[in-house]
């Protein structure tokens, strides 16, 4: 490929794509993106997490200046060239009564799950979504790793999502598993493809998307398969670097 820096965008998931899950980006990856890739194309981030968590993993709030686009919470909050764009709110969109009924059921369901360990912060209310973690987000990294293995065997998250869909068939929510310990709940259409609405008028000839959770139910699935993107499934940050090296002849 002989890219034009103004016509091609490389858009990245964070967890498992540019960083190890919930870890900070390693310096060799940051150097690669900034020094080798950025001169060849525009670069952007899109994550389901809020901006604070994205900034922590990307080594600081100045990430909005180092990357041309930063889409937090799937693009409900976004930055272009360091300046904030519009915001959307799940509370305003769904209404308090409907949200409370949903959250109350989630709390009751979580109380019935038995796991090897449970910690704290099982529900995290974000600007544009609800993040649900059966083990609790305050668990340690070792506990995260152990839960991921346990969940792969026992399908804790998938089973819970099935129960939520059955109990709330008409609520208008979508469910997406991302990372190691949780899943996201958001209004239909508020998956990562939402960020593409902000890019439709930018004039890019190609938008390359890189993510690791691209299978059905993963939080990269919709944007990976969207007709507006060229999807690249990755297994790790090292894999991302390898694919970029081959794609751009770096």
UniProtKB/TrEMBL annotation:
<dbReference type="GO" id="GO:0006487">
    <property type="term" value="P:protein N-linked glycosylation"/>
</dbReference>
<comment type="similarity">
    <text>Belongs to the eukaryotic PMM family.</text>
</comment>
<feature type="binding site">
    <location>
        <position position="22"/>
    </location>
    <ligand>
        <name>alpha-D-mannose 1-phosphate</name>
    </ligand>
</feature>
<keyword id="KW-0479">Metal-binding</keyword>
<dbReference type="InterPro" id="IPR005002">
    <property type="entry name" value="PMM"/>
</dbReference>
<protein>
    <recommendedName>
        <fullName>Phosphomannomutase</fullName>
        <ecNumber>5.4.2.8</ecNumber>
    </recommendedName>
</protein>
<dbReference type="InterPro" id="IPR023214">
    <property type="entry name" value="HAD_sf"/>
</dbReference>
<feature type="binding site">
    <location>
        <position position="137"/>
    </location>
    <ligand>
        <name>alpha-D-mannose 1-phosphate</name>
    </ligand>
</feature>
<feature type="active site" description="Nucleophile">
    <location>
        <position position="13"/>
    </location>
</feature>
<feature type="binding site">
    <location>
        <position position="182"/>
    </location>
    <ligand>
        <name>alpha-D-mannose 1-phosphate</name>
    </ligand>
</feature>
<keyword id="KW-0963">Cytoplasm</keyword>
<dbReference type="InterPro" id="IPR043169">
    <property type="entry name" value="PMM_cap"/>
</dbReference>
<dbReference type="GO" id="GO:0004615">
    <property type="term" value="F:phosphomannomutase activity"/>
</dbReference>
<comment type="pathway">
    <text>Nucleotide-sugar biosynthesis; GDP-alpha-D-mannose biosynthesis; alpha-D-mannose 1-phosphate from D-fructose 6-phosphate: step 2/2.</text>
</comment>
<feature type="binding site">
    <location>
        <position position="184"/>
    </location>
    <ligand>
        <name>alpha-D-mannose 1-phosphate</name>
    </ligand>
</feature>
<dbReference type="GO" id="GO:0046872">
    <property type="term" value="F:metal ion binding"/>
</dbReference>
<feature type="binding site">
    <location>
        <position position="224"/>
    </location>
    <ligand>
        <name>Mg(2+)</name>
    </ligand>
</feature>
<feature type="binding site">
    <location>
        <position position="15"/>
    </location>
    <ligand>
        <name>Mg(2+)</name>
    </ligand>
</feature>
<keyword id="KW-0460">Magnesium</keyword>
<feature type="binding site">
    <location>
        <position position="229"/>
    </location>
    <ligand>
        <name>Mg(2+)</name>
    </ligand>
</feature>
<dbReference type="GO" id="GO:0006013">
    <property type="term" value="P:mannose metabolic process"/>
</dbReference>
<comment type="subunit">
    <text>Homodimer.</text>
</comment>
<feature type="active site" description="Proton donor/acceptor">
    <location>
        <position position="15"/>
    </location>
</feature>
<feature type="binding site">
    <location>
        <position position="144"/>
    </location>
    <ligand>
        <name>alpha-D-mannose 1-phosphate</name>
    </ligand>
</feature>
<dbReference type="GO" id="GO:0009298">
    <property type="term" value="P:GDP-mannose biosynthetic process"/>
</dbReference>
<keyword id="KW-0413">Isomerase</keyword>
<dbReference type="Pfam" id="PF03332">
    <property type="entry name" value="PMM"/>
</dbReference>
<feature type="binding site">
    <location>
        <position position="13"/>
    </location>
    <ligand>
        <name>Mg(2+)</name>
    </ligand>
</feature>
<dbReference type="InterPro" id="IPR006379">
    <property type="entry name" value="HAD-SF_hydro_IIB"/>
</dbReference>
<feature type="binding site">
    <location>
        <position position="226"/>
    </location>
    <ligand>
        <name>Mg(2+)</name>
    </ligand>
</feature>
<comment type="function">
    <text>Involved in the synthesis of the GDP-mannose and dolichol-phosphate-mannose required for a number of critical mannosyl transfer reactions.</text>
</comment>
<feature type="binding site">
    <location>
        <position position="126"/>
    </location>
    <ligand>
        <name>alpha-D-mannose 1-phosphate</name>
    </ligand>
</feature>
<dbReference type="InterPro" id="IPR036412">
    <property type="entry name" value="HAD-like_sf"/>
</dbReference>
<feature type="binding site">
    <location>
        <position position="212"/>
    </location>
    <ligand>
        <name>Mg(2+)</name>
    </ligand>
</feature>
<dbReference type="GO" id="GO:0005829">
    <property type="term" value="C:cytosol"/>
</dbReference>
């Amino acid at each position: 490929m002989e890219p034009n820096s103004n016509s091609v965008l490389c858009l990245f998931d964070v967890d498992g794509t540019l960083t190890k899950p919930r870890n900070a980006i390693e310096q060799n990856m940051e150097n690669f993106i900034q020094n080798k890739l950025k001169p060849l194309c525009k670069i952007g981030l899109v994550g389901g997490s809020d901006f604070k968590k994205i900034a922590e993993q990307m080594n600081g709030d100045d990430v909005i200046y180092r990357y041309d686009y930063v889409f937090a919470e799937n693009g409900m909050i976004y930055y272009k060239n360091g300046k904030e764009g519009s915001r959307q709110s799940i509370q305003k969109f769904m209404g308090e009564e409907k949200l409370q009924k949903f959250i109350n059921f989630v709390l009751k369901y979580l109380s019935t799950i038995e796991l090897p360990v449970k910690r704290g912060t099982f529900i995290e209310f974000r600007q544009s979504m609800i993040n649900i973690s059966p083990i609790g987000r305050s668990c340690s990294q070792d506990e995260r790793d152990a839960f991921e293995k346990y969940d792969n065997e026992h399908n804790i998250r998938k089973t819970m999502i099935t129960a939520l869909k059955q109990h709330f068939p008409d609520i208008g929510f979508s469910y997406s598993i991302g990372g190691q310990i949780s899943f996201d709940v958001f209004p239909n259409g508020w998956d990562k493809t939402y960020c593409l609405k902000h890019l439709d008028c930018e004039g890019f000839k190609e938008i390359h998307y890189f993510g690791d959770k691209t299978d059905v139910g993963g939080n990269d699935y919709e944007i990976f398969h969207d007709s507006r993107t060229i999807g690249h499934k990755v297994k790790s940050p090292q894999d991302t670097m390898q694919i970029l090296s081959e794609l751009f002849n770096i």
